[in-house]
Design brief:
- By secondary structure, the chain is mainly α.
- The chain has one domain: Orthogonal Bundle (Farnesyl Diphosphate Synthase).
- Helices cover about 75% and strands about 0% of the residues.
- A two-stranded antiparallel ribbon has the order 1-2.
- A hairpin with a 2-residue loop joins strand 1 and strand 2.
- Helix 8 packs antiparallel against helix 9.
- The protein is globular, with a radius of gyration of 20 Å.
């Protein structure tokens, strides 16, 4: 995915180093075994977009990237990482971020408990920032669970409604971006109108992010992705470009429908990718991503002029440019 303009802001290189150090410190315990498991995916790397977004949001009115903004962003990142531990157990995934998953290396029980531990640490950090942030993070964890359940209930369902897809990604992805941006505004002491605008931005940005990610799973090559393309279809998760291909009807939709509905072998995956790539599903989904990007840009209108605001306004188009 393209480098976002957030990372070009003055001081952001040092701020990302602060984020990394604080993330590692947040999962350090007196138990070396638990510390190793809890930090496993953190030390494996990551984009850190959620804590970076919290820092950018905190600076839209010219304020500083405070420690509270760092901690607020870390709380969101820990929720994301904890959810990945649980996702990998459900998916029986062997690798993540180029390393063994926790479940593959230590087992499902350890992965589940380590994920729970990360969620507890996130909640502890949120509570240190005040009751509003604590309640906000708790609601966000609930939205993540709702989004995951919505996805699970339609696994391998080729008749999955588009509304189900949108509700799922709103819960699983967009909610955490919205919360990251909102926390940044809260800890910076911004006016409520600006905090609400940042929240709307984060929600729309998160929708763009996930639709683009789902498009890349279809349109990018295995080498570009670092994993087999079409992974979502293999797992029975039918995303927007797939649903739009099915909605279009005709021979392509009928052929795709004959392939989907159960786990795919390599030949089935390749055929399904060929169909989706060659038809209207990808450009149609891209058009929806552009609509969400426009909403994100519009949400910046109430924000005061600043380098941070400019970065927020430019970021959705940078995401769209990632689609190959």
């Amino acid at each position: 995915m393209a480098q976002l303009p957030f990372f070009s802001l003055p001081g952001m290189v040092a701020d990302v180093e602060r984020i990394e150090a604080a993330l590692v410190a947040s999962v350090r315990t007196h138990d070396a075994y638990l510390s190793e498991i809890a930090s496993h995916l953190i030390v494996a790397g990551g984009k850190r977009l959620r804590p970076v977004l919290a820092l950018v949001a905190a600076q839209v009115a010219g304020g500083a990237a405070t420690d509270d903004a760092v901690q607020g962003g870390i709380a969101c990142e820990l929720v994301q990482t904890g959810s990945l531990y649980h996702d990998d157990v459900m998916d029986e995934a062997p690798t993540r971020r180029g390393v063994e998953t926790v479940n593959a290396k230590w087992g499902n029980l350890q992965a589940i408990l380590a994920g729970d531990f990360l969620l507890s640490r996130a909640s502890e950090i949120a509570a240190s920032l005040g009751t509003e942030v604590a309640a906000l993070l708790a609601r966000t964890i609930g939205r993540l669970c709702e989004g995951q359940i919505e996805e699970l209930r339609h696994t391998y369902n080729a008749a999955r409604p588009e509304s189900s897809y949108l509700a799922s990604i709103a819960g699983k992805t967009a909610s955490l971006y919205a919360t990251s941006a909102r926390i940044g505004g809260i800890v910076a002491g911004l006016d409520r109108g600006l905090i609400d605008a940042l929240t709307s931005y984060g929600e729309s940005f998160g929708m763009v992010f996930q639709i683009v990610d789902d498009l890349l799973d279809i349109s990018a090559t295995d080498d570009q992705l670092g994993k087999p393309a079409g992974h979502d279809m293999v797992e029975g998760v039918y995303t927007l470009p797939v649903l739009r291909t099915l909605q279009a009807g005709g021979i392509a939709a009928a052929s795709l429908l004959g392939i989907l509905g159960s786990p795919l072998e390599v030949a089935g995956r390749e055929k399904a990718l060929e169909i989706v790539r060659a038809n209207a599903g990808v450009p149609s989904a891209m058009a929806t991503a552009r609509e969400w990007a426009a909403r994100a840009v519009a949400a910046c209108d109430p924000l005061p002029p600043s380098d941070a605001t400019d970065a927020l306004r430019s970021a959705p188009d940078a995401l769209l440019a990632s689609v190959v």
